Structures are given as structure tokens and as C-alpha cells.
Amino acid sequence: PADRLGVQSDAFSLTRCGLLSTVQLLELVRSYKNEDDYTVWADLISNLSDIAVLLQSDPSCFTLFSQYVHDLISVILPKVGWTKVEGESHTTSLLRARIIGVAIKYEHPETIQTALNKFAAFFGSGQAMNVAGADAASTLSPDLRSSVYSAVVAHGGAFGYQCVKMIGEKSSLSEEKVRCLNALGSSTQSDLLLRTLG
């Protein structure tokens, strides 16, 4: 893993200083499709986000880049799944959160739909608002809440925005409040973004 991390990290550095083309870099990164180490993925995702920032102003180009990322995570995404397995390592939990987070960031349709469904079950069960006697089976892992809340705000319209805002206001945990506040910035509607800033 240390060598694999170093190779891609060096390749990104060479691309940043113009000694390796971005096309060559992205071809190299394709070989990480079967990667399963958390540290490698964490660095790779961080490096890919630098490219994403450069492409955001061109929607058609960014869409193609998102499809590239979808293909890159197509093996690891079903492998980590949504549910923690008994006895799994701490790094597997971290990897799950990072992969689901990146899938939502680059608008992977199935992941976004699953996130919306899980949020609906979580919110509807009373767990989100700490309602007495809430259905514990619908608990949403704290590791995944930031990503799920972001998906709900970005794709759930005004209703999704209001639900996440309400969770943040009702929660007594500062960590949950921060999750919700960060997620509110994920809206694509200017009126909701202005409400967040207001």
C-alpha cells in the first residue's frame, strides 16, 4: 500500500508541475480500480478533488470526469457497502465513509437514491429527532451522516433542506450540528443557500 500510495502521489505532483500530462495521470489512476486500502484511497480522492476544482466551471467536462470517478469506484463501492460488518477493522469503516462520500459528491445515481431512502427511514423512524421509543433498526451510522445529509440537501429540495436544518437545530450534540450546517451548503438552489447564509 505504501508503494501504491507513493506512485499515485508522485504522479499527481509531476502533473502539477507539468512533467506528466493529465491524460497520462488519469490513465495511471485507472489501474487503482481494484484498490482496497484506506490510506491509498484517501490520498487518491484528495488528489482527484484538485482536478475536479479545475473542471467545475465546465458542466459538460465535469460530467465526464464524474463518470470517470464512477468507473474508478465501481469495484470498491459495492465491496464496502452501507452496513458495518461485525469484526471489521476501523479503517474499513473509514473507507466506507470516504467512498460513499465521493460517490455522492460526483453524483453516482444509485448511491444518491440509497442515501435518500436511508435518510427517509432514519427521519421517519424518529431516530433523527431522538423521539422516545424510536425504531432503532433505522439508525444511520454517524460515519455516513455527513454524506447522506449532503445528498438530502442537494437532491431533496426545500423539504430535504428543512429536515436537515431541523435535525441540526434539535440536536444537543455539537458534532451533529456541524454535520448539518456543512450539509446545508450542498444545496443547488440559490434561495436555500441565501437562507443558510442569512
Report what the structure shows.
The protein is an all-alpha fold and 198 residues long. It is built from 11 helices and no strands. It is globular and about 55 Å long. It starts with a helix and ends with a helix. The mean pLDDT is 94.
* Mean model confidence by pLDDT: 94
Instruction: Describe the global form.
Output: globular
**Number of alpha- plus pi-helical segments:** 11
Low-confidence stretches: none
The secondary structure category is mainly alpha
> Which series of helices and strands comes N to C?
HHHHHHHHHHH
Helicity range: over 70%
Instruction: Give the amount of beta strand, in percent.
Output: under 5%
Main sheet? none
Number of strands: 0
Distance, first to last CA: 46 Å
Computed Rg: 18 Å
Topology record:
Blueprint: H1 2-16, H2 22-30, H3 38-55, H4 59-72, H5 76-80, H6 90-105, H7 109-125, H8 142-155, H9 157-170, H10 174-184, H11 190-197
Helix pairs in contact: 1-2, 1-3, 3-6, 6-8, 7-8, 8-9, 8-10, 9-10
Highlighted features:
single chain, mainly alpha, 11 helices, globular, 198 residues
Task: Produce a short descriptive summary.
The protein is mainly alpha-helical and 198 residues long. The protein contains 11 helices and no strands. The protein has helices spanning 2-16, 22-30, 38-55, 59-72, 76-80, 90-105, 109-125, 142-155, 157-170, 174-184, 190-197.
